[in-house]
Amino acid sequence: MSFKIIGNGLSPFVRKTRVLFAEKGLAYDHEPLIPFNVPPEYKQKSPLGKIPCLEHDGRALPDSSVICAYVEKVQPQPPLYPTEPWDYAQALWLEEWADGGFVANAMAPIFQERVIKKLFRQEPDEERLTNARDKALPGYLDYLEGRIDDQTYLVGGRFTIADIAVASPFVNLMHAGVTVDAKRWPKVAAYLERIHSRPSFKALIEEERASLPK
Ligand SMILES: N[C@@H](CCC(=O)N[C@@H](CS)C(=O)NCC(=O)O)C(=O)O
Protein backbone atom coordinates (compact mmCIF):
# COMPACT_ATOMS: atom_id res chain seq x y z
CA MET A 1 0.00 0.00 0.00
CA SER A 2 1.47 3.37 -0.92
CA PHE A 3 0.00 6.65 0.23
CA LYS A 4 0.84 10.23 -0.65
CA ILE A 5 -0.76 13.27 0.97
CA ILE A 6 -0.61 16.35 -1.24
CA GLY A 7 -0.90 19.79 0.34
CA ASN A 8 0.99 22.29 2.43
CA GLY A 9 1.24 21.26 6.07
CA LEU A 10 -0.07 24.60 7.34
CA SER A 11 -3.55 23.83 6.00
CA PRO A 12 -5.85 22.70 8.83
CA PHE A 13 -7.33 20.15 6.42
CA VAL A 14 -3.95 18.72 5.42
CA ARG A 15 -2.99 18.53 9.11
CA LYS A 16 -6.25 16.71 9.82
CA THR A 17 -5.35 13.94 7.37
CA ARG A 18 -1.74 13.78 8.54
CA VAL A 19 -2.80 13.44 12.19
CA LEU A 20 -5.21 10.65 11.24
CA PHE A 21 -2.43 8.82 9.42
CA ALA A 22 -0.11 9.22 12.42
CA GLU A 23 -2.78 7.96 14.82
CA LYS A 24 -3.26 4.91 12.61
CA GLY A 25 0.48 4.33 12.35
CA LEU A 26 0.35 4.57 8.55
CA ALA A 27 3.37 5.76 6.59
CA TYR A 28 2.89 8.19 3.70
CA ASP A 29 4.84 10.47 1.41
CA HIS A 30 4.12 14.16 1.70
CA GLU A 31 4.07 16.63 -1.20
CA PRO A 32 3.61 20.11 0.31
CA LEU A 33 1.72 21.76 -2.56
CA ILE A 34 0.63 25.38 -1.97
CA PRO A 35 -2.99 25.84 -3.12
CA PHE A 36 -2.53 29.04 -5.16
CA ASN A 37 -2.48 28.78 -8.97
CA VAL A 38 -2.30 25.02 -8.82
CA PRO A 39 -1.13 23.34 -12.05
CA PRO A 40 -3.93 22.00 -14.32
CA GLU A 41 -2.67 18.45 -13.69
CA TYR A 42 -3.49 18.89 -10.00
CA LYS A 43 -7.13 19.66 -10.88
CA GLN A 44 -7.32 16.24 -12.50
CA LYS A 45 -6.68 14.86 -9.03
CA SER A 46 -8.53 17.46 -6.97
CA PRO A 47 -11.18 19.03 -9.25
CA LEU A 48 -11.91 21.94 -6.88
CA GLY A 49 -8.19 22.71 -6.82
CA LYS A 50 -8.11 22.43 -3.04
CA ILE A 51 -5.76 20.66 -0.67
CA PRO A 52 -5.46 18.00 0.61
CA CYS A 53 -5.59 15.28 -1.97
CA LEU A 54 -4.64 11.69 -1.21
CA GLU A 55 -2.98 9.37 -3.67
CA HIS A 56 -3.42 5.73 -2.80
CA ASP A 57 -1.89 3.12 -5.07
CA GLY A 58 -2.06 5.54 -8.01
CA ARG A 59 -5.65 6.74 -7.43
CA ALA A 60 -6.46 10.28 -6.30
CA LEU A 61 -9.00 11.27 -3.64
CA PRO A 62 -9.67 14.90 -2.63
CA ASP A 63 -11.18 16.42 0.52
CA SER A 64 -10.00 15.85 4.08
CA SER A 65 -13.34 14.48 5.34
CA VAL A 66 -13.56 12.03 2.44
CA ILE A 67 -9.93 11.02 2.84
CA CYS A 68 -10.28 10.40 6.58
CA ALA A 69 -13.48 8.37 6.15
CA TYR A 70 -11.82 6.33 3.40
CA VAL A 71 -8.66 5.63 5.37
CA GLU A 72 -10.80 4.48 8.31
CA LYS A 73 -12.19 1.76 6.01
CA VAL A 74 -8.78 0.86 4.59
CA GLN A 75 -7.14 0.69 8.02
CA PRO A 76 -9.84 0.23 10.68
CA GLN A 77 -7.42 0.02 13.63
CA PRO A 78 -7.33 1.93 15.85
CA PRO A 79 -10.91 3.06 15.17
CA LEU A 80 -11.20 6.83 14.89
CA TYR A 81 -14.95 6.99 14.27
CA PRO A 82 -17.52 6.03 16.90
CA THR A 83 -19.66 2.97 16.17
CA GLU A 84 -22.73 3.93 18.23
CA PRO A 85 -25.03 5.77 15.76
CA TRP A 86 -25.64 8.94 17.80
CA ASP A 87 -21.97 9.30 18.71
CA TYR A 88 -21.05 8.68 15.07
CA ALA A 89 -23.38 11.49 13.99
CA GLN A 90 -22.02 13.80 16.68
CA ALA A 91 -18.46 13.19 15.52
CA LEU A 92 -19.44 14.01 11.92
CA TRP A 93 -21.30 17.11 13.10
CA LEU A 94 -18.29 18.40 15.04
CA GLU A 95 -16.07 17.73 12.03
CA GLU A 96 -18.43 19.85 9.92
CA TRP A 97 -18.65 22.51 12.66
CA ALA A 98 -14.88 22.83 12.49
CA ASP A 99 -14.38 22.51 8.73
CA GLY A 100 -17.37 24.47 7.52
CA GLY A 101 -17.88 27.06 10.26
CA PHE A 102 -14.99 27.61 12.62
CA VAL A 103 -12.29 27.48 9.93
CA ALA A 104 -14.17 29.63 7.43
CA ASN A 105 -15.39 32.34 9.81
CA ALA A 106 -12.77 32.55 12.54
CA MET A 107 -9.56 30.64 11.92
CA ALA A 108 -8.96 31.40 8.24
CA PRO A 109 -9.33 35.20 8.43
CA ILE A 110 -7.05 35.35 11.49
CA PHE A 111 -4.44 33.04 9.94
CA GLN A 112 -4.54 34.79 6.58
CA GLU A 113 -4.14 38.25 8.10
CA ARG A 114 -1.49 37.31 10.66
CA VAL A 115 0.56 34.55 9.00
CA ILE A 116 -0.09 34.28 5.26
CA LYS A 117 0.18 38.01 4.63
CA LYS A 118 3.40 38.12 6.63
CA LEU A 119 4.81 35.31 4.49
CA PHE A 120 3.93 37.34 1.38
CA ARG A 121 5.17 40.59 2.95
CA GLN A 122 1.71 42.16 2.75
CA GLU A 123 0.03 44.45 5.27
CA PRO A 124 -2.72 42.81 7.34
CA ASP A 125 -6.30 44.04 7.16
CA GLU A 126 -6.65 44.94 10.85
CA GLU A 127 -10.42 45.30 10.70
CA ARG A 128 -10.87 41.80 9.25
CA LEU A 129 -8.49 40.43 11.86
CA THR A 130 -10.23 42.16 14.76
CA ASN A 131 -13.68 41.10 13.58
CA ALA A 132 -12.66 37.46 13.30
CA ARG A 133 -10.74 37.39 16.60
CA ASP A 134 -13.02 39.49 18.79
CA LYS A 135 -16.45 38.95 17.25
CA ALA A 136 -16.54 35.55 15.50
CA LEU A 137 -14.07 33.48 17.57
CA PRO A 138 -15.72 33.91 21.02
CA GLY A 139 -19.00 32.38 19.79
CA TYR A 140 -17.17 29.27 18.57
CA LEU A 141 -15.27 29.00 21.85
CA ASP A 142 -18.50 29.33 23.87
CA TYR A 143 -20.03 26.46 21.90
CA LEU A 144 -16.97 24.28 22.37
CA GLU A 145 -16.78 25.04 26.10
CA GLY A 146 -20.34 23.64 26.39
CA ARG A 147 -19.56 20.59 24.26
CA ILE A 148 -16.47 19.59 26.22
CA ASP A 149 -18.30 19.59 29.53
CA ASP A 150 -16.23 17.30 31.81
CA GLN A 151 -15.09 15.00 29.07
CA THR A 152 -11.54 14.23 28.05
CA TYR A 153 -12.59 13.84 24.42
CA LEU A 154 -15.45 15.39 22.47
CA VAL A 155 -17.45 12.25 21.66
CA GLY A 156 -17.99 8.82 23.18
CA GLY A 157 -15.19 8.96 25.76
CA ARG A 158 -12.38 8.32 23.30
CA PHE A 159 -10.20 10.09 20.76
CA THR A 160 -12.02 10.38 17.41
CA ILE A 161 -12.15 12.29 14.15
CA ALA A 162 -14.07 14.99 16.05
CA ASP A 163 -10.99 15.73 18.19
CA ILE A 164 -8.72 15.71 15.14
CA ALA A 165 -10.95 18.05 13.11
CA VAL A 166 -11.64 20.46 15.98
CA ALA A 167 -8.10 20.65 17.39
CA SER A 168 -6.40 21.02 13.98
CA PRO A 169 -7.47 24.62 13.17
CA PHE A 170 -6.48 25.71 16.68
CA VAL A 171 -2.89 24.98 15.66
CA ASN A 172 -3.29 27.70 13.01
CA LEU A 173 -4.49 30.10 15.69
CA MET A 174 -1.43 29.23 17.77
CA HIS A 175 0.81 30.00 14.78
CA ALA A 176 -1.04 33.31 14.48
CA GLY A 177 -0.30 34.12 18.14
CA VAL A 178 -3.94 33.75 19.20
CA THR A 179 -4.39 31.57 22.26
CA VAL A 180 -7.53 30.60 24.15
CA ASP A 181 -8.08 32.63 27.32
CA ALA A 182 -8.07 29.91 30.02
CA LYS A 183 -9.96 32.16 32.45
CA ARG A 184 -12.91 32.56 30.08
CA TRP A 185 -12.81 29.13 28.38
CA PRO A 186 -10.99 26.86 30.88
CA LYS A 187 -12.28 23.58 29.44
CA VAL A 188 -11.33 24.47 25.87
CA ALA A 189 -7.86 25.62 26.94
CA ALA A 190 -7.17 22.41 28.90
CA TYR A 191 -8.70 20.25 26.18
CA LEU A 192 -6.50 21.76 23.47
CA GLU A 193 -3.38 21.40 25.55
CA ARG A 194 -4.21 17.72 26.03
CA ILE A 195 -4.97 17.01 22.36
CA HIS A 196 -2.07 19.04 20.97
CA SER A 197 0.36 17.17 23.22
CA ARG A 198 -0.47 13.83 21.58
CA PRO A 199 2.56 12.65 19.55
CA SER A 200 0.52 12.86 16.31
CA PHE A 201 -0.15 16.58 16.76
CA LYS A 202 3.09 17.45 18.57
CA ALA A 203 5.36 16.25 15.76
CA LEU A 204 3.46 18.27 13.15
CA ILE A 205 3.31 21.40 15.31
CA GLU A 206 7.10 21.27 15.72
CA GLU A 207 7.64 20.69 12.00
CA GLU A 208 5.34 23.59 11.11
CA ARG A 209 6.93 25.97 13.63
CA ALA A 210 10.32 25.29 12.09
CA SER A 211 8.92 26.26 8.67
CA LEU A 212 7.52 29.62 9.78
CA PRO A 213 9.51 32.86 9.92
CA LYS A 214 10.37 33.91 13.49
N1 LIG B 1 -13.57 20.68 2.36
C1 LIG B 1 -12.18 20.71 1.98
C2 LIG B 1 -11.62 22.10 2.22
C3 LIG B 1 -10.19 22.20 1.72
C4 LIG B 1 -9.73 23.65 1.61
O1 LIG B 1 -10.52 24.61 1.62
N2 LIG B 1 -8.40 23.81 1.52
C5 LIG B 1 -7.84 25.12 1.31
C6 LIG B 1 -6.50 25.28 2.02
S1 LIG B 1 -6.68 25.31 3.76
C7 LIG B 1 -7.59 25.32 -0.17
O2 LIG B 1 -7.14 24.42 -0.83
N3 LIG B 1 -7.87 26.52 -0.67
C8 LIG B 1 -7.61 26.84 -2.04
C9 LIG B 1 -8.86 27.14 -2.79
O3 LIG B 1 -9.95 27.24 -2.18
O4 LIG B 1 -8.76 27.30 -4.01
C10 LIG B 1 -11.40 19.66 2.78
O5 LIG B 1 -11.85 19.30 3.89
O6 LIG B 1 -10.37 19.17 2.30
Secondary structure layout plus pairing:
Layout: E1 3-6, H1 12-24, E2 29-31, H2 40-45, E3 53-56, E4 59-62, H3 64-74, H4 85-119, H5 126-148, H6 161-175, H7 186-196, H8 199-211
Parallel strand pairs: 1-2
Antiparallel strand pairs: 1-3, 3-4
Helix pairs in contact: 1-3, 1-6, 1-8, 4-5, 4-6, 5-7
The structure holds glutathione.
Residues 11, 13, 35, 49-52, 63-65, 99 line the site of glutathione.
Alpha-beta classification: alpha+beta
- Provide the helix percentage: 55-70%
Series of H and E elements: EHEHEEHHHHHH
What integer value in Å does the Rg equal?
17 Å
SS element count, helices: 8
Bound molecules: glutathione
Protein described:
The protein has a four-stranded mixed beta sheet, covered by helices on one side. It is of the alpha+beta class and 214 residues long. The longest helix is centred in the middle third of the chain and has 35 residues, at 85-119. Helix 1 runs parallel beside helix 3 (64-74), helix 1 (12-24) crosses helix 8 (199-211) and helix 4 packs antiparallel against helix 5. It is built from eight helices and four strands.
